[in-house]
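The authors assume throughout that readers already know how a fold can be written as discrete tokens. Each protein is reduced to its one-letter sequence and a matching series of backbone shape codes. I therefore recommend that a typical entry be quoted early in the introduction. For illustration, here is how one protein appears when written out as sequence plus structure tokens:
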Amino acid sequence: MTAVELVTAFSAGELSPVEAARAVLDDIAARDHDINAFCLVDEERTLEQARLSEERWRTGYAKGLLDGVPISIKDIFLTKHWPTLRGSQAVDPDQVWDVDSPVVARLREDGMVFVGKTTTPEIAWKAVTDSALHGITRNPVDTTKTAGGSSGGSAAAVAAGFGPCSVGTDGGGSIRIPAAFCGVVGFKPTHGRIPLFPASPFGPLAHAGPITRTVEDAALLTDILSLPDPRDPTALAPPVMTFRGALDREVVGLGVAYSKTLGYVSVDPEVGDIVDHAVRRLADAGLIVTEADPGFDDPLDAFEVLWASGAAAMLKNFPDGARDKVDPGLGRVWERGETLSAVEYLDARAVAAAVGITMGTFHLTHNVLITPTMPIPAFEAGYDVPSGSSATSWPQWTPFSYPFNLSQQPAISIPAGKAAAGLPVGLQIVGPRHSDDLVLAVARFAEYVLADQKG
């Protein structure tokens, strides 16, 4: 059931939050040993939250939009009563955990039921989900394949049916990549739309957002998560509309650009054919599609400078001896970050600004941009890069995601279809900064059109 369907059932008295929570917990106990989506499940606290919600629904006083709906939380967000280890053996679990991050605080205020913390690679540094602390997270569609990352535990949990929704972070594609690989919806709003605390070491690249099975659920969660928090000085002003309400806006006749390669990406032929077919369906349904590349060169080098700088800034605060404990790949990024100068960092920020300016100009002509989310389907679990590829780092095989962290634009991945092997393929919709409502509306339209195509 989707989050919307659960709330409808709670309101009608057809189902209780305790029954929903119990079903999710039982399913996790039965099946998560094959997937490893969760690094923490606290049945006692989960059921207590569900009982409180059940009482609120019984007396007719629901606390929020999604009161009683089970949700999982990526183990990057601080959460009262639960350790936030960030996938790292260098974080001491035996300390006081008495702070909710803004994301968790908003979910708690809404009355949602916390199922547990989902797995992440160490400090969310790469686009697959494995760590020495928690092991490998696998794709529910095919457990020999990666779930993607770094919000791989969250996407795997939603795809496996361990609750209808989760929350993740996205500094270079970490919501959209696993959403595409696992066949779910992953939304990265405009930078600052969802407040963060503590500030991410990846700074202007860092976003938070929902992972769900439907665009409507993603919009509802964005309504909840976009409420203000004074701890983030970069947060945007509260929205003046509801994102769920904006889903009903008319998008037929909208001018849409389709870029299959961004002008420089090599795309797996099967993935390209699936996304081509999806875009033709959208054109047949009334979007005015023009094939057009945005016009920027691959900003990979600048992204990797910013990424390494952020990793080094965070890891320098880890305890003595941490270098010997961290993921070897992360260690190499750490070492590179320590060699970078302030001038190199600012040069990389200038590239990010140039991408943003190019995209701002592009959107004067094209309301949104559609691309594949990933150039390849999910590959074998346990590897940082696809076996046999020339890639040596994760951003090299995620070329459709990180440019839009540099530009700080809203971007969503929705399912476009499945490859012959049954692996999901994602379609990405990107809009101008601050057009989160438009991106969600186009995604909802595309979701309906492509669902009709399937059956």
In short: Residues 93 and 103 are 21 Å apart (CA to CA).
